[in-house]
Design goal:
By secondary structure, this protein is of the alpha/beta class. Among the domains are: about 10-235 and about 625-640, 3-Layer(aba) Sandwich (Rossmann fold); about 410-440, no CATH class; about 445-480, no CATH class. It contains 17 helices and 25 strands. Strands 1, 2, 3, 4, 5, 6, 7 and 9 form an 8-stranded mixed sheet that branches. A hairpin with a 2-residue loop joins strand 11 and strand 12 (about 285-290). The longest helix has 19 residues, at about 620-640. It is elongated. The two termini are about 45 Å apart. The model is unreliable at about 335-340, about 445-455, about 645 and about 650-669 (pLDDT under 50).
Length: about 675
């Protein structure tokens, strides 16, 4: 008789330092590790962050113990980072505070995602070495120390610590101390670098530094790497969401309002490139010389209907510029009675004389061969000064032959029109006609106007400026300088390769979503092919939402805040929207039963704060992949197993060795 396999379920607990909005919590809660007939569930016992809004998001990120608002700085670190002493009542966090935040339970897994700004490549090397950012980097060591002290009597089984890859160089001294500290508490440690996009199958490439540690006595089995997945296209995620600005997406799906000139820049950036695409444009006097941007016209703008086809619906504004309201009339005959601007042959008869007899209403002009004679030959004629004129007629005007080329006005300044008198010469007679004589002077003193501060004067870099006056603007004195220190972007300059004003193709992947993701500091715009109609052109500096059809036929626009959250896998579009009406009805019914929001929301209404928390978050699907391999290892340890056959590499790079194997100077990893 066949027996049903009985599944044994075990529970493992996870805790989070610098938890942010709870991406790690979501992923670990969703993990479903299984070994044979053993399965595991992962339960969150809390998290710590110093941002109250992030903790409110953390509490909404799924079941588990509520998060705790706590500053993990030491007093010295607080002062160095904030530039001032902490407020009254502030105190340093201790091990007992950490245990209390976890409900006095011991976790099996601790996830640490300490702030990474100090080690980020977006920060210059010089700034990263300042006391402020060194204090921020020191939180890495501070979190590890507090964790080890809090659960010294029952060490955490597995630890995962994530940060930016550059921490391995800028924070090397801190990592060395972390390794030594963990070894003293009985841990084996391995430093690796992974792409969270490949771990979670995301539509972004997010390279991260990962330090994993295993308590050797409590967990003998190897810890294997999560399976790597194929990166998805950005459009695979965004295409399942409502169109940007659609009310179904909620307030976080608003399109950012940018200045008109920024929209124009984005439109000319090639998809897959960044601001350097703009160097290919021909610009003359600050204007594009090869392109002209116009509002997109309505369909059939200036349309002409064929004579043998039917016309569309006749609207109340049936004009050529509002649709196809013109016709290609085959009855137009150039030599007929109604030939517009028609010119008759001298030797042929004219057409019918109508009541409307102007040149633009028919053939009411003639090619007169007699014009070749002397008649009217002096129209606009100018006689030479030393030649005789023609016959003086009764209508002696320029149009009938009267004019002379008079050489005398330049020789006499008295009545020279708009003449400029030299500084060392006398002026002519002052007359009543104030625009008919020499009423201007070439004044050599212009360079000393405004006490040496010439209007719109640019001061050379190696000379002194003029007197600084109250109206210190570019139009009132020498308040500009010819600075020779031009920006020279070269290899190694972070700005050069930062992807500023970068536009991603619809079928490409985004880079790691950073906390400061914006259209002007990275590749945070998308060539959206779902383009429709554009609004009228706005004022030059007006902030607006503009839809410009780029050269590739798509809409280059910034990501919405909600789209950044989807790229981080913090939301699954299929859980909120579906193109299948039946599935959408089921989703709506579920929301009604559970009281869930019609669209994803983060705490507060500030888009900038939302984007920062999203960029700081650990992608949910990447955390889920890590949680599943860690849960599998813990199941093996609970069953007394020390080995599992797996095709996946053991989690250590670049040499594939087990965490249980010995590493030089590491006390056994």
């Amino acid at each position: 008789m066949k027996r049903d396999l009985i599944t044994i379920t075990k529970e493992f607990r996870h805790f989070h330092f610098c938890c942010g909005l709870g991406g790690g919590k979501q992923g670990f809660n969703a993990a479903q590790p299984q070994v044979g007939n053993m399965a595991a569930t992962l339960r969150c016992i809390g998290g710590i962050d110093n941002d109250p809004a992030a903790i409110r998001d953390f509490d909404r990120a799924g079941p588990g113990r509520p998060g705790t608002v706590m500053d993990l700085f030491t007093r010295a670190q607080y002062t160095a980072f904030h530039g001032k002493e902490p407020p009254s009542g502030w105190r340093e966090a201790a091990a007992v505070d950490i245990r209390r935040a976890a409900g006095n339970e011991s976790p099996n897994i601790v996830f640490i995602s300490s702030p990474c700004k100090g080690a980020s490549g977006l920060l210059s090397e010089t700034l990263s070495k300042t006391a402020k950012y060194q204090a921020l980097n020191e939180l890495t060591l501070r979190c590890i120390w507090l964790m080890c002290e809090a659960w010294a009597d029952n060490p955490v089984d597995l630890i995962v610590f994530e940060n930016v890859p550059r921490l391995a160089t800028r924070g090397r001294h801190l990592l060395d101390q972390i390794n030594q500290l963990l070894q003293q508490f009985g841990y084996a440690v391995a430093e690796t670098t992974h792409d969270c996009g490949e771990l979670g199958g995301l539509a972004q490439s997010r390279k991260r530094f990962l330090l994993v540690a295993r308590h050797m006595e409590k967990v003998p089995p190897f810890l294997y790497e999560p399976e790597r997945k194929r990166l998805r296209a950005v459009g695979d995620v965004l295409g399942r969401m409502p169109f940007p600005g659609d009310a179904a997406g909620g307030p976080m799906h608003r399109i950012p309002r940018l200045q008109w000139k920024t929209w124009v820049r984005l439109a000319f950036v090639e998809a897959g490139s960044d601001w350097r695409s703009l160097n290919k444009l021909a610009v003359e006097d600050g204007h594009l010389s090869e392109y002209l941007i116009l509002p997109e016209r309505s369909h059939d703008y200036l349309g002409v209907n064929a004579w043998g086809e039917h016309v569309g619906a006749v609207s109340g504004r049936g004009t050529p510029t509002t649709g196809a309201y013109s016709v290609a009339d085959p009855r137009y005959v150039n030599e007929g009675d109604y030939g517009q601007l028609g010119v008759r042959d001298w030797a042929k008869p004219t057409g019918t004389i109508t009541g409307q007899r102007s040149p633009i209403q028919g053939g009411f002009s003639v090619a007169d061969p007699r014009a070749a004679g002397e008649r009217h030959s002096n129209v606009y004629r100018v006689a030479a000064w030393d030649k005789s004129s023609g016959t003086v007629t009764g209508d002696f005007k320029p149009t009938s032959g009267g004019g002379v080329s008079d050489p005398r006005p330049p020789a006499g300044p008295m009545f020279s029109k708009y003449a400029v008198t030299r500084w060392d010469k006398r002026t002519g007679t002052v007359i009543g006609g104030d625009d008919q004589g020499a009423y201007a002077v070439a004044d050599p003193r212009s360079s000393t106007g405004f006490e040496g501060a010439g209007k719109y004067l640019v001061t050379p870099f190696d000379e002194a400026a003029g007197t600084v006056i109250a109206g210190s603007t570019t139009g009132q004195g020498a308040f500009c300088v010819a600075d020779p220190r031009a920006i020279n972007r070269q290899k190694g300059d972070a700005f050069l390769t930062g992807g500023h004003y970068g536009v991603l193709p619809w079928d490409g992947q985004s880079g790691a979503v950073s906390a400061s993701a914006g259209y002007d500091n990275g590749r945070w715009s998308i060539a959206d092919p779902r383009i429709d109609e554009a609004p009228q052109l706005p004022a030059l500096n007006q902030k607006t939402v503009a839809l410009i059809r780029a050269l590739d036929g798509t809409w280059h626009r910034p990501f919405t805040t909600l789209e950044l959250g989807a790229l981080q896998s913090l939301i699954d579009p299929d859980e909120h929207w579906s193109t299948d009406p039946q599935i959408q009805r089921e989703i709506d019914e579920h929301k009604c039963r559970t009281g869930a929001s019609a669209f994803p929301l983060l705490d507060g209404t500030n888009d900038s704060a939302h984007r920062e928390r999203i960029g700081n978050a650990v992608p949910k699907l990447a955390a889920q992949a890590i949680g599943e391999v860690m849960g599998t290892t813990l199941l093996l340890a609970a069953a007394g197993e020390t080995f599992m056959l797996s095709a996946m590499p053991i989690w250590v790079q670049p040499v594939a060795i087990a965490i249980a194997a010995s590493q030089a100077g590491a006390g056994g990893t």
